[in-house]
## 1
Amino acid sequence: MAIDSHMHINSIVLSDKEKYIDAINNNDNIESVVNVALDLKSSEESINISKSNLKFFSSVGIHPLYVKSQNLETLYDLADNPKVIAIGEIGLDNTKSNFEEQKKYLVKQIMIANELNLPIIIHSNNSNKLIINIFEKYIKPKYGCVFHCFQPDLEDLKYLVTNNFYISFAGKITYKTAKKSIEVAKIVPDDLFLVETDSPYISPEPVRGDINETANIKYIINTLAKVKQKDYEEIEKITNENVKRLFKKMR
């Protein structure tokens, strides 16, 4: 059974959330999912879903596109739940000009994660090096980190591997244009990568263009199995172990 390490069941894209929740609960090929928050409202929603659905775990945090008027102190209370396994997704996004505000939110949330002994889930939109610079200049996560939907860069990968930080592969690795991601997949150590759907976004081939579902994790695992010349079941086992090593509250 696979673990989807990053998805958004409470996305506004999904008009019938219960339908997709039921699909996960009834899928014998899915062990669990990490339902990732974007702001305080979605953090609360994610926790509520995880309370009533055994397969669901939650993260809480403020995405860089939602940093305006969010009370970060609320995260302390939200994270005080056994099914909250990380702070995220947090990071930087270069599509907005409010970099200083994004940076303040990122630094503060890493601080909160360190205080709560939690790993962080990083959103990095063409900003890997900026985030790495923040790690080195201001504050570094003490309890683990994953760059979700990793934007491939071998120099950045070297830094992350040196620090025992994780990367995750999503639907883009199944695309014909994914040459750089394939190159990264070939060399990333087996104990430092995860798989995710980022559902309902980034649908993999052969369902590209459709609303993405957690069940589509099989296409990502299958692609990685071919790239790393391993059996499907071996990649599934490796990534499940990696998820539980990073998100220790999922054990």
## 2
Amino acid sequence: MLWTLSLALPLISCASKKVMLPMADIQVGQKTISVELADDPAERHQGLMYRSSMDTDHGMLFVYPSSAPRSFWMENTSIPLSIAFLDETGRVLNIEDMTPHDRSGVPSAGSAMYALEMNRGWFDRNGVQVGAVIAGLPGPSEN
């Protein structure tokens, strides 16, 4: 029994480690922000679930291989977020506030290739509105 327990402990400690996603800097208005890139199906599914906070001027950028209507929900997500849906040129289609643990879908206002999640209210505080163009976005993923 002691042998089984010693094998289980490393598995538990590995499961609790935060997986670091690739980072990129993008330009939102006059501000440069650092974003984690979620650009494959598993990373996009995980998103910001199971995290308790996010640094100021940091976010998560979801990158898709093509534009399509998108919808996000907040299952297992504790951080109050705002989301901006972006078309393939980086133009903001809509910005929505999202409520922690809410399973209601929050849809894009059109076909989106990107979704940018920031701490709730970040877009308002930084004067980012529908129609703004976000620069420095990575190309679409192949996934």
## 3
Amino acid sequence: MIKLLILDVDGVLTDGTITYTPFGTEVKSFNVKDGFGIVRALKEGLKVALISGRYSSLVEKRFRELGVEEIHQGIEDKMEVYGYLKEKFSLKDSQIAAMGDDIPDIPILKTCGVSGAPKDAVPEVKLIVDFVSTKEGGKGAVREFIDFLLKEKGNE
């Protein structure tokens, strides 16, 4: 049974676009369906963690609002955080699900119990995951993966 869901941010929870205003402020858009899926997953007892190679205060703000406590940003070695979370929550790889879209996500996707990717993930990722969403990153792919996980868990 899956107990932890790990999500990449750019390209998974967003469409991968990085926008700056003329004043240098970063702008990100998040899908409300993905947000509802995360809240639902948390209510169903799944822990949710974000691991991102970039840092954004907007990510911190949005996902704290949703109740996500494990937000790891500016991470070069995502497997290091994976190991930390696995140990912190006393989990086996088979109890962890993850969704990623690009090459830095591959080590986690190959290690976890159930792996997923958005429709527009790079081919190398889509070839190795268990689940490929019909939706693109930032367009409901996370919600679709969460729905899949909760059905598998028997909570649907």
